[in-house]
Amino acid sequence: MGLVGASGSGKSTLLNLLAGLADADVGEVRLDGERVPGPAEVLVAGHPAIRLVHQEYQLMPNVSVRQNIAYAIRFYEKSYQEFRVNELLRICRLESVQDRTPKQISGGEKQRVAIARAVAEKPRVLLFDEPFAHLDLPNRMVVRSMLLDLVRHDPERKTACLFVTHDATDALSIADELGVMYNGQIIQNGPPQTLYRHPKTAYVARMTGPVNIIKAACLPDLGLPGSPNPDRSVALRPESIQLAQTGEVTGVVRAVFFKGGYSEIEVRVSRYVKLLVNTTESVTVGDTVTLVIKPEGVISL
Fold it and tell me: What CATH number was assigned to the domain covering residues 2-206?
């Protein structure tokens, strides 16, 4: 499960509560029906079956990558330690840096070491606080692929995983279920496709990807039927709008953002309507373009 929300919405606090690292004011956390105690009730905070990977990695600085991972299973037999560490070094793509200390490896490699250490004992629940926050694109791809290997493709045991992120792309691409958090509340959750295509509020729409939020009163300006509730907001995803050769709706390109396989352009249609549109056509700032909006792409909020 992925969890997205603005800064200060309560995502990291929720992770600490779930991991047994913070005490709840009310309510309780249960794992398979068993209550997870808070730090005020135990000598050492945390739960043995739950692992939280922090943004700061929290690695031991003066020992090697291999020793950092092995420390998590130090009470197991030496033969199993060797087997498990070698397995994680391979899965986490760390074999080439296993003898280096954390200060000698990159941020992406530190993240992978932290994850390997967290999963070494095969916990029932994995919690990640912004697992992709400090990573460049190649490392993000490696970590994403690695998480899928660890969580989904373990034939012996499936591990539940909850991660929080600011990036909707990460959440949409790997989560089986997605939740959107606002002011300490999960205001909508479900399959990523559902939240993306049917957000209940403008906040959910914005947190799950690029979107145009406009008043329903402006729909006729876009060649769409008017709404009985003109003051209500509606959402339009950029892919619901296409450039065309002919049509009644025109606008002026105000900005072009190249995204690689396509460009995201900002089009001023009227005084009150400015739209983000995805296109593979070559356009420049100042061009007049014709737009066609799919009626089924209008999402009532």
Answer: 3.40.50.300
- Listing DSSP states for 211-244 in one string gives -EEEEGGGGGGGT----S-TTSEEEE-GGGEEEE
Give 254's contacts (C-beta < 8 A, 6+ positions apart). Answer: 266, 267, 268, 274, 285
**Measured between alpha carbons, how far is 242 from 279 in angstroms, rounded to an integer?**
7
* Domain spans of the chain, in order of start: 2-206, 212-300
Contact between 177 and 190 under an 8 Å Cβ cutoff? The reply is yes
Query: pLDDT tens digits for the chain (301 residues)?
Result: 999 999 889 999 999 999 999 999 999 999 999 999 999 999 999 999 999 998 788 899 999 999 999 999 999 999 999 999 999 999 888 999 999 999 999 888 998 999 999 989 889 999 999 888 778 888 888 888 888 777 766 656 678 899 998 888 888 888 999 999 999 999 999 999 999 999 999 999 999 999 999 999 999 989 898 888 888 999 999 999 999 998 889 999 999 999 999 999 999 999 889 999 999 999 999 999 999 999 999 999 9
Give the fold, CATH level 3, of 212-300.
OB fold (Dihydrolipoamide Acetyltransferase, E2P) (2.40.50)
Instruction: Give the amino acid at 28.
Output: E
One-letter amino acid for residue 62 of the chain: N
The encoded tokens of residue 217 equal 């009163």
Helical H segments across the chain, by residue range: 11-18, 65-71, 78-91, 107-119, 137-151, 168-174, 192-197, 202-207
